[in-house]
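re: that chain from earlier
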Amino acid sequence: MNTYDLENLLNLDGEIYPLENGHWIKFEAHQVEPSPQIPHGISYSLTLHDKHNRRVIGFDNAHGIKPKRKRFRARRITWDHEHRLEKVVEYEFESAGQLIEDFWAAIETYLGEGHA
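^ sequence. v structure.
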C-alpha cells in the first residue's frame, strides 16, 4: 500500500468540512490490526451529509453486508461498502488513495445531479 496515500487518509481523521450549500463532509480513519473483516488494516468512514444532517453518501467498513446474490456466486459478507442515500452496495477497497478519489467522485456526481 502506498504509504503517502495512507498517511493522507489518516491525517484526515476527525476533519469536518462545511460546504457552501449547507452540506458537510466528515472523515474518520485509523489503522487497526488486520483481520478477516478488515484485511487492509484501515477502519474508515468518509461521509457527506445534507443540510438536515442526513448522511447521503458514505464509504465505510463499520459493519458487514451481504452483497446481492449473483447466479453462481457464493454469498459472502463484505465489510467495505458504500451508502448512497438508502442504498448500500459493496465497495472494492483497492488503496487509501483510491478510496479518497472514489469518495470525491461520488460527491461530485451526487451534487451534479442537483442535490445541492
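The mean pLDDT is 85.
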